[in-house]
């Protein structure tokens, strides 16, 4: 019997192989996503889930990751293999060669290969069908400076526009997926309907708010939401080398901040308990018709979070698309999900480490 869930997938380059492992384990244990959102490499993973040919999610993720994993170069040490993607990744990106035009460059690479990879590996008719899986990706608009979510569905009571957040129901194409991962200065901005977009992780690397717009009212209090956290930062030693400094800076930039703003000293548990109480005391009053109150009630879904966190990323791990690097992150994600599912949790909010 399939168990419904929702998924939130972060960005993190090659660290996304951890998400590949987590989702594979969840699916094998009978969990099935009703809604999924992602950003950057998480958008590619999310698209591979919603657009899985024949509905085979594990096979779809495996095929995408096989396509973007670099072949092993014989006799080259493993630590050198990890950096090969800096020279390009034929099914993902290629370095620019139009050196005569270098003064006009706004990126070092082209993402045209990923557009072709997505088009050939995924079923975009299925991906655009919300009756199959509700799906959304986020990107950062260079026009507004805020986050735009492109999705195949807009739930009843969804919020489509605030000061810096917009939600657009659209027919999704490979360009929408690539826009979510257009991280400068390596990758160029992706233009959609006349607006240029950069990587969604520049605004928020944990797109829970975009997922909330995909949930119908009857799911808010009950649907489990699995969040894969690629950048845990608690309890880390002070960096001792320049490479460790760079790795930590990236982790701090892209760590999850979504629920740190809720609840004050009471933390997230106290915040959702307050929302449940508020729903009870305001039942039948005029406040129920206020859009701000409706969004506040939508945040009750946060009590259903299940966070599966990776161990801290190795130095340079975000660009390690070598066979060994991808295999290690996949296996770590698979094991973390199995450990989580094997644990008897007295409460839904729990963090598991690989």
TrEMBL record:
What PROSITE patterns does this protein's entry cite? PNPLA
The PNPLA domain covers which part of the protein? 7-212
A GO molecular function annotation here is:
hydrolase activity
Signal sequence coordinates: none
Please name the catalytic residues of this protein.
40 (nucleophile), 199 (proton acceptor)
Where does this chain carry the motif DGA/G? 199-201
- What CDD domains does this protein's entry cite? Pat_hypo_Ecoli_Z1214_like
| Keywords, in A-Z order | Hydrolase, Lipid degradation, Lipid metabolism
The lineage, from the top, is: Bacteria, Pseudomonadati, Pseudomonadota, Betaproteobacteria, Burkholderiales
Motif interval(s): GXSXG: 38-42
Report the residue ranges where the short sequence motif GXGXXG is annotated in this entry.
11-16
Q: What is this protein called?
A: PNPLA domain-containing protein
> Which Pfam families does the record match to this protein?
Patatin
Q: Which GO terms describe its biological process?
A: lipid catabolic process
Concerning PANTHER family, the annotation shows:
BLR7027 PROTEIN, NEUROPATHY TARGET ESTERASE/SWISS CHEESE D.MELANOGASTER
Gene source species: Pseudoduganella dura
